[in-house]
Amino acid sequence: MKTALITGITGQDGSYLSELLIEKGYRVVGVVRRSSSIENRSRLDHLPPETRKQIILQYGDMTDASSLVGIIKKYEPCEVYNLAAQSHVKVSFEQPIYTSEVTGVGALNMLEAIRISDQEVKFYQASSSEQFGKVEASPQNEQTPFHPRSPYGVSKVFAHWITVNYRESYGMHNSCGILFNHESPRRGENFVTRKISLGVAKIKEEIDNKLFLGNLDAKRDWGFAGDYVEAMWLMLQQKQPDDYVIATGESHSVREFCEAAFSHLGMDWEKHVESDQAYTRPAEVDMLCGDASKARQKLGWKPKVNFKELVKMMVDADLAFVKDNFTYKHSGFRLSKR
Ligand code: NAP
Ligand code: GDD
């Protein structure tokens, strides 16, 4: 049985990738951080017991190189997917040094752990469209220069180039997937799409009345996370390692996402959305749109879920979530069940 190691297994992508790899017959080892609560396993909670048995969770941290050395030695994975990161762009302005240690140097820690193990490992690095930042051409492809706009983006550029450097220097099978924004009902609640889908559901259920957002003009190329983890796996099945843009090729504004999400539940977004400077960033990425032709040609990959379907999927899931988790009290307040 092949063993795959996933860092960031408790995150959105980690959970979808685990399911995909288990379906394909892998034993999955996931790196988890010690926390005082076990809440951060919630994205794996829905897995049936027989699937959970194929996942081993092992304590470790991207900033603790010795833990990564120990994990590689102990489990001898043939594929390593490095998904762990402090992945929130705005938070990276508040914690720039921490972000660079986890998101940037963390990738190097893992590459070193693999290099000194002398094992044959295929390595996937979770690169990001944030690396294009203040875009120098549109749509962005593998040739577009990087111009990151946040400590997160800069850290990802470091992780990307060190991954390429270890490929060129040591002949390692390292691939970078430059993934554009991808979302799902499992998306963290402080990313804009999930903030909107959850906000819409709470407003529909009369738990809230307003949704406060930052820059509505920003445009993103949004796809579905379940489609994108397939591309990660495909990259590691290639004979030659390489770097690929993964995107839908369609760009929509935050405003358009709001319109689509509110109108799906028969509401007018303009009555509920208000602007709040607290959610803007010191430097913004105005517009991202990816060209995934190389992935289409070489990996045979293309997205299956379109923008409208994604919005609907997220809003429907959050409406069910809100109905399940919030209850009406006769006093007139609605209280969270959790
Ligand atoms: P996410 O939901 O924020 O998950 C991040 C994961 O990293 C979590 O499992 C988190 O663990 C883990 N982590 C954070 N700090 C760590 C540390 N010091 N040591 C070990 N693990 C740590 O992110 P995602 O959306 O799934 O994205 C996966 C990866 O793809 C990230 O690297 C992200 O930057 C990159 N990416 C994402 C997108 C996107 O649109 N989603 C696009 C391009 C690239 P806890 O649960 O303990 O916090
Ligand atoms: N989070 C958030 N909250 N973003 C808002 C809000 C708000 O209230 N209002 C407007 N936005 C705008 C942001 O300014 C940004 O332009 C856009 O919505 C998307 O923000 P996020 O959903 O936080 O995602 P991101 O594009 O900054 O970063 C995500 O995608 C990257 C790939 O390009 C993250 O998943 C990164 O980890 C990933 O690399």
Helical percentage: 40-55%
Name the CATH superfamily classification of the largest domain: NAD(P)-binding Rossmann-like Domain
For the largest beta sheet, what order do the strands appear in spatially?
3-2-1-4-5-6-11
Q: Termini distance? A: 39 Å
Under CATH at level 1, the class of the largest domain stands as Alpha Beta
Name of the CATH architecture of the largest domain? 3-Layer(aba) Sandwich
The overall number of domains is 2
Q: Assign the structural class, choosing from mainly alpha, mainly beta, alpha/beta, alpha+beta, or little secondary structure.
A: alpha/beta
Mean pLDDT: 96
Shape: globular
Radius of gyration: 20 Å
* Molecules bound to protein: NADP nicotinamide-adenine-dinucleotide phosphate, guanosine-5'-diphosphate-alpha-D-mannose
Approximately how much beta-strand content do the residues carry? 15-25%
Quick one: biggest sheet? 7 strands, parallel
Order of helices and strands: EHEHEHEHHEHEEHEEEHEEHEHHEE
User: What's the total number of strands?
Assistant: 15
CATH topology of the largest domain: Rossmann fold
Number of helices: 11
**Low-confidence sequence ranges:** none
